[in-house]
Description:
Elements: H1 3-17, E1 19-21, E2 32-34, E3 38-45, H2 50-66, E4 72-79, E5 89-92, H3 95-102, H4 106-111
Parallel strand pairs: 3-4
Antiparallel strand pairs: 1-2, 2-3, 4-5
Amino acid sequence: MSKTGWKKAERDVARKVGGTRYPANTGGRVDVVDAEGHVIQVKERKTLSLAQIEALAVEMERIGNQKTPPKIGSLWVKRSGGRGVETPWLVVMTESAWRALNGRSPREEMTQCPSPRP
């Protein structure tokens, strides 16, 4: 992908989340930060293995946790389908990042009933 296309992908994600795109020459791993406390890495590739996706999601979680205050880290990935072929953005995050964003599920809250007092 050309540098222009890459910048366009990052700007597209920044626009979708109402965030700010960081230029690549800043040397950081974060491409986009939004006002709600998310740090995002953007990838658009023909192929990206599950192991690579996992490593990037874990890295973004780590980077988000290092921020003050902590932020939610995620990976936005899009398959490059070729000229004129639209593909959807996929948002990938670790389970612990998802739980930090959403809290406990209703099912977990039902099973976590307090013990009766003696």
